[in-house]
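Hi everyone,

Forwarding the result from last night's run.
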Amino acid sequence: MGISYVEFEDEAGVLRRYRKHVNGRGLVATTAKVDPTAFVDPTAYVDPGAEVQRGAQISHGAWIDRDAIVAERAVVGVNVHVGRRAVVGRNAVIGPYASVGNDARVQNGARVPREMTVAEGDEYRASGDDLRRLGLAA
């Protein structure tokens, strides 16, 4: 059985090709890099140039925009939008219905609360509780 593709026209009228990810069957652009151990829900999208690293989880309805990075073991919650060129750090958790703006950064281990918006270009830092949860703080 061969690889099947789905094609969409983007906002600039360019036809983009997506394939179903092996773990979860979510749609991944052919120019995106998604590790085989990452989970991409069948209703989630990973756009061109984006990267989803080892063990990351992309939940129902989530959208990883162009050139964004979701690092190892990060969790992107239900209906989350990770903006263009944004970075979600290792072990970070983005709560349901939250959004991470273009060029924003979520530090390793940080937990972004439900429905919160990390503004474009901002950096969301991990709290002491976040770091203790990971065994990184005294």
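The domain at 5-132 is CATH 2.160.10.10 (UDP N-Acetylglucosamine Acyltransferase; domain 1).

Cheers,
N.
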